[in-house]
Design brief:
Keywords: Membrane, Transmembrane, Transmembrane helix. This protein is mainly alpha-helical and about 60 residues long. Helices cover about 75% and strands about 0% of the residues.
Length: about 60
């Protein structure tokens, strides 16, 4: 997998997982919570499998 494509997929899965988690919390729907957590966990697995260098914030020097 190309690194840029992997990073895009990682961020897309993270954002989609967070959105599903929020919808699940607002609607008190366990299925959305489980699916959102699964998307977030799969994003982290993709990150570790393909050894992607992904930062969530910039380092302040």
């Amino acid at each position: 997998m190309k690194e840029k494509l992997g990073v895009v997929i990682f961020y897309a899965l993270c954002i989609f997982g967070i959105i599903l988690e929020l919808v699940g919390l607002l609607n008190i729907d366990v299925m959305f919570l489980i699916v959102g957590a699964a998307f977030f966990i799969s994003a982290l697995l993709i990150k570790s499998e393909f050894k992607l260098y992904v930062t969530f914030w910039k380092k302040v020097e």
